[in-house]
Amino acid sequence: MFILKLIAKIALLPMLLVLLTLHILVKISLNLASIVAGGLILVVFGCLVYVIVKARWTDVLILGLMEATIVAVTFGASMITGLLDMASDSLGSFFLS
């Protein structure tokens, strides 16, 4: 049984290294993109308030969709980070057992 576990650990080691590398890269890119997206959200929100005051309802729809898209992309990236974190944790616990 020990030999089978050792073979499985050796076979899964490259996958764990790839998962950890992807996790680090996605987390770094998410942090950098959040800074840019935060500024973009503020600008779009400012434009949205201006357009609401001027009662340009078509532009309100377009800017609202832009705002929702930015938030959805950021949420999707954080979901990917969470999934990579769960996968690397489960593989890491297999290696420690």
Give the SSE string: HH
User: What is the helix content?
Assistant: over 70%
Tell me how many strands there are.
0
- Residue stretches low in confidence (pLDDT < 50, at least 5 long) are none
Which structural class do the helices and strands define? mainly alpha
Query: Taking all residues together, what is the mean pLDDT?
Result: 87
Number of helices: 2
Q: What percent of residues are in strands?
A: under 5%
Report the span from N to C terminus. Answer: 13 Å
Shape: rod-shaped
Cα-atom radius of gyration: 21 Å
Largest sheet: none
Name the features:
97 residues, mainly alpha, 2 helices
Quick take:
96% of the residues lie in helices and 0% in strands. By secondary structure, it is an all-alpha fold.
What does this structure look like?
This protein is mainly alpha-helical and 97 residues long. It has helices at residues 2-54, 57-96. α1 packs antiparallel against α2 (57-96). It is rod-shaped. The model has no long low-confidence stretch (mean pLDDT 87).
Question: How is the topology of this model organized?
Answer:
Blueprint: H1 2-54, H2 57-96
Helix pairs in contact: 1-2
